[in-house]
Each structure stands twice: as C-alpha cells, then as structure tokens.
C-alpha cells in the first residue's frame, strides 16, 4: 500500500475504536482496504488519525445495544438484543475479521466466502457502506 | 427383523449364537379363521425346536475336527475365519486355525508359482494396486475360496445370512456382502463420483464468473458478502430498516437472478414512502402483486419492471384509478395491455412522464400511441421503444414532434426506412445526447442528418445494418461540430453477401475509413467501443489507430470480436495504447493465439479451451477490476 516516505515511518498497526470504546489493533495494510480508513490514515490528509494511528469510528458499535433493526423475526426485541449480545453480536470485530480475511486471500483464487451470521448482516452492511470497503484499482 | 425370524426352517443352520426369537413372525392382524391361541402354540413349538437345534450345532462345532466342517454349514471357505465363532475359544480351535493358516499359505504359494499369476503380474506391472505380490496372490486366493453361487453365506457387513449369486459384491475385507448392503455400497459410490464431477465443473465456472465480475483473484468485498447473505436469508427478514436505496436495488437484483422474486420477498421492497420500485424479473408475480405495489407505495415515481407479463389491463385500470403520478416507467414484456389502455394512460398520466421505456409488447402499442406522445407528454426526455412489432414508418414520424427529447432509442421489428429517421433527427436532433437505432434499414442519409443536426451526442449506437457505407461514417466524424463521444456501438454494420464473402467493393458497413475518423474525433473521451463483426477493418488501420504515439486513456471496454484482421500484434498494441482498459473481447479472432496480457486486464474469447485468460507479472494489488 502507499506507504509514506516520511522521516518517521508510521507504525505497521493501527487502532480501530468503536463508538462504545472497544479497541482493535489491526495491520495497517489490511485496514486500508477500506476507503474511509485509508483516507483517514493518509499522511497527506492532515487528519489527526494519520499521526496517532487511532481511528475513532463513531458510526460502528461493538456490541449492539440500542440501534437494533427490526429485521429478524424474534418474538421480543429485548430477547433479540439479549441474543445478539450473547452470540457476540459484534460489528467492529467482524469488520476487523473481514480485513484479515481479505488481506490473507488477496492473491488467491477461488476464495471461500466468509461466514456472516444473518442476524449481523444488516448492521454489517451499514458498516460496509460507511467504510467503503469497495476495492479500488490504484 | 432378522432373516432368521422370517425363515424359521433354516434356523438350525445358523452359526450365530443366541438368536432372539422373541419377535418371531406373527402377523399382527390375523384373519378370522385362525385362532390366536393356535398360532401362539405353534410359535412356542417352533421356538423350542430352534433352541434345541441351536444347542446341537454349538456342540458339534466345538467337537468336530478341523478338516470336517459340519454338514449343515455349507460355506466351503475353510480359510475364512468366522467371526461368529462364539465365546468358546478352545485349544482345538486354535489348532484348527493354525492348520487352516498353513493350508492357506500353501495355496497362496501355489498361486504365486502358477503361470497365469505370473502373466497377470506382468500385465498389471504398472498398476499401483497390484504392486505388492503377496497382496495380489492373496486376492486371487480369496477370490477362489469365496463361496460359489447358490450357497449360503453370512454378510461381511451386517452378518445376515443370504444366498450367494454370481453378482454378489465383495466388501472391504474380502468377504461377500448381502444384496441389501451391496445396494447401499453402490449408492454411496455413485453419490461420491457424481458429487465430485459436478463440484469440479461448478468450481471452474465459478472462477470464470468471478473473473468476469472482476473479483479475481482475491476475496469478495464486504458489502457483496453481506448482501449475498441477506439474499440467502431473505425469508427471515421482516423489513429492511433504513437500508440505502442502492443496496435495496442490488438485493432485488440478486433475488431476481435467483428467480426468487415472489409475493413475499416483494413486500420487503415495497417500503412505504419509497419512490423507486425495481423488479428485474417479475415473471413469478401475479396481477395482484403488481396492484399491491401501487397500494403499498402510493408515492412511487420511478417504476421499473422486467418480465412483467402479468402487468395487464386490470393492473393498468387500477393504476389509472389512483392518483399516482409516475415520472419514470420502464416496462418489459407487458404484452397484455391493450392499445385502449395505453391511450388512456397517456391522456391521464402523461403530463408528468419524463421517462418512458417499453420493451416487448408484441401486438400492442403502435403508431396511434406514438401519435399521442407529443400532445400528452410535454416533459418526456427519455423515450425507448424496443422490440416492437407494431410501429411503422408513419408512427415514427410523430417522434420528431417531441421537442423535449434528450435520449432516444428505437428498435422496431417491422421494415422501416430512412426518411422517418431523418425527420426525427431533423426535428429533435440538436439537444439529443443519446441516439440508438438498432436493426433499421437506414442508409447514409441518416448519418448525414446526424452530422448536420446533432451537437450534443454522447452515446451513439447504430447497429445491425447493411446499407450505411464506410464513406458515410467517415463523413459523419469528419469536421463534426459535436464534442467527442464516450460510447460507440456500431456492431454488425457490415457487408454480407454469400456469393462474395471477402470483397466489399462498395465499401458497405463500418470499416477502415470510418474507424480512423471515429478515433480521430472521439478517441480521447471514448469509454466503450463495440465494433464487433465490422469485419472489413484492415490490419493497417488497426496498426495506425493503435500506434505507439496514440493513447486512449478513457477507454475501459472494447469489443473487436469477428474483426478478421485482429491478431496478437493488434491486441498487444491495444493494451499499449489503452492503459486503463479493463476488458477486451476478441471472440472469433483466430489471429489471436498467445498474447501477453498485462496484470489487471481481462481478455475474453481467445480461441483456446480456456477462452479466457489473465496474467500478472507486476507486483501490486491483487485485484483485476474495481
């Protein structure tokens, strides 16, 4: 990835922070698949994130507690939330997992699809939209 | 229920110890003439007899010498150890086993020495399975020692007795299998081979499909993964929440591709307050479903329905009875709406209509309806009438009066001639940005009209034509006031004559002159070029157009299939001159054999078994296309 030629080489790892305070340390190169994170960390952008290497992702929660979409048929909303928390209904963790899955498979052919739990898929879709994980030909 | 229980007369022969006869065959529903008591007595008697016989067999088994097997054990295989020998492991038995082993070894040695065996060894020499001499000899030995047909044997797998036939199968340990077990084995084997075959085929096709989708090598992006998961589990969903419209549309596309757009999934897409409804395949929806679209989404402005066969008069009547004002209507395959309904639609709902696209209407929608458009649709900017069988030259002339038009696409099946098209271009030409005329028998006069009138064209498609000449195309692009184009499609504009297939003396079709003029006029901005089957473009032209000093930076897609002059060199030149090209299609170009494809490009249609190839030599991101 486009690493800068600054005097002080940036760390190989960056920290992603969810809105409820959970932190994930991931490989910079893997995280830069996301257009949004890449732009945040671009040394030429002058964003604070580019110097600290810490990305505050206010849009993405770690555990889903209030914003729960009405998507899946569960008898009670409360039960649904409980279930999500128990199963590890964790968006940013899944995003980080995807970064590594993508990084690992970047040059392989016939890559098996990553498992995405259906309950999580709508939240993850929103996160993907925000992070713009579309591949870009540079 | 075991075999013994069914045939009690064979019981004494069985060497299985302690067979339970508690569930001996007693029909649960006895008929009126037979007393239950008598049956019970019979069964008891049989049970007692069986028990006595069993004890007798056990006794003789223990007592008899190794050479003389009991008569009632017909299997002649002395070599095979019976696993049902029971608990009595006496010394005599061990001795017998040893002797049996000796016999076996002797027999195997004899087989090894035999001439037939040697011959067989030579034959199978290369075969891995037969490489071990001992094993091979043992296999032959066991084959010989197996029970002969029509004798009884215990199944190797389930232990049940069965009658040996010439077709009895051999199990893993060399014993024979009963019909039931061999059937199961057959089934398993068939399944395994079948699955392997289809899996391999599916995998190969999937790789090719990914290649064309631009996700090769590497993983799918997160959004695609999520949308696919959502599409798989759509029956679990209640509603989509506030999903962005672009994703809802992609989801609809995936569901339609899988032919799963029925009533239930459709409801998910009818979100109250939405202004766009897109169904890419409505073949499984009924008229009621289409009516429901208008009931659930009275705010709908943009309606796109493909394969909407059931969008018929009743649905149109319902639409006309509501206050819905459609701005964009794109209807595909709705061939059951009659002309009267179309007239009413334009009279009542035409005022707000900005886009009207109609595909495949068979016997409906003709000249009359086109005549209404200029009067009833003052805001119409986009008009597409394609695969229409009813419209004629007279109807087309009315299009010339729709002065608001910006995009126009016409594909009429009937015979049409140049004059109405010239009139259309004279009438609405200057503001036109898109002009597509497919399969019309138009000639150079139309090209001249375009040259004279059009000043804003970005997308130009004139296809499937045998009348326009190369000179006409060249004149169009020479000193044309129009700014450079971005999209060109001139496929199948070529000379066809089976008597004289090679020469093109009259210069018919899009050919060398036209191609050079086109690239000189629009080369800088062109993104999409389709000139497939324009087969008279010469090699020299290709070489000149894609020379070292020519660069076409915007070009991303090009189809030059069935252009006979194209060869490896031309393809190489194209890759050199178009650094941003993503896909180059070269079907039917037999001069293309072994060409070096730069990383990130897709070349489709090479005449090899693979048909498709990518190659990467540089380092960099592993993606083909973004």
Describe the protein.
The complex is a heterodimer of chains A (138) and B (626). Chain A is α+β, with helices and mostly antiparallel strands and 138 residues long. Chain A has one domain: Potassium Channel Kv1.1, Chain A. Chain A contains six helices and three strands. Chain A has helices at residues 28-31, 35-41, 48-52, 77-87, 91-104, 121-131, and strands at 13-18, 23-27, 54-57. A three-stranded mixed sheet of chain A has the order 2-1-3. Chain A is globular, with a radius of gyration of 16 Å. Mean pLDDT of chain A is 68; it is low at 1-7 and 63-89. Chain B has 626 residues and is of the alpha/beta class. Chain B has helices at residues 3-6, 36-63, 91-113, 115-123, 133-145, 179-213, 222-232, 245-257, 263-269, 287-296, 313-321, 339-349, 367-376, 393-399, 418-428, 444-453, 470-477, 512-522, 539-545, 568-577, and strands at 152-154, 161-163, 276-279, 302-305, 328-332, 355-359, 382-388, 407-412, 434-438, 459-463, 487-489, 528-530, 557-559, 583-585, 602-604, 612-613. In chain B, the strands form two sheets. Chain B has a 14-stranded mixed sheet with strand order 3-4-5-6-7-8-9-10-11-12-13-14-15-16. A two-stranded antiparallel sheet of chain B has the order 1-2. In chain B, a hairpin with a 6-residue loop joins β1 and β2 (161-163). Chain B is elongated and about 115 Å long. Classes of the chains: A alpha+beta (138), B alpha/beta (626). At the A-B interface, α5 and α6 of A face α6 and α7 of B.
Quick overview of this protein structure:
The complex is a heterodimer of chains A (138) and B (626). By secondary structure, chain A is an alpha+beta fold.
List the helices and strands and how they pair.
The complex is a heterodimer of chains A (138) and B (626).
Chain A: E1 13-18, E2 23-27, H1 28-31, H2 35-41, H3 48-52, E3 54-57, H4 77-87, H5 91-104, H6 121-131
Parallel strand pairs in A: 1-3
Antiparallel strand pairs in A: 1-2
Chain B: H1 3-6, H2 36-63, H3 91-113, H4 115-123, H5 133-145, E1 152-154, E2 161-163, H6 179-213, H7 222-232, H8 245-257, H9 263-269, E3 276-279, H10 287-296, E4 302-305, H11 313-321, E5 328-332, H12 339-349, E6 355-359, H13 367-376, E7 382-388, H14 393-399, E8 407-412, H15 418-428, E9 434-438, H16 444-453, E10 459-463, H17 470-477, E11 487-489, H18 512-522, E12 528-530, H19 539-545, E13 557-559, H20 568-577, E14 583-585, E15 602-604, E16 612-613
Parallel strand pairs in B: 3-4, 4-5, 5-6, 6-7, 7-8, 8-9, 9-10, 10-11, 11-12, 12-13, 13-14, 14-15
Antiparallel strand pairs in B: 1-2, 15-16
Helix pairs in contact in B: 3-5, 7-8, 10-11, 11-12, 12-13, 13-14, 14-15, 15-16, 16-17, 17-18, 18-19
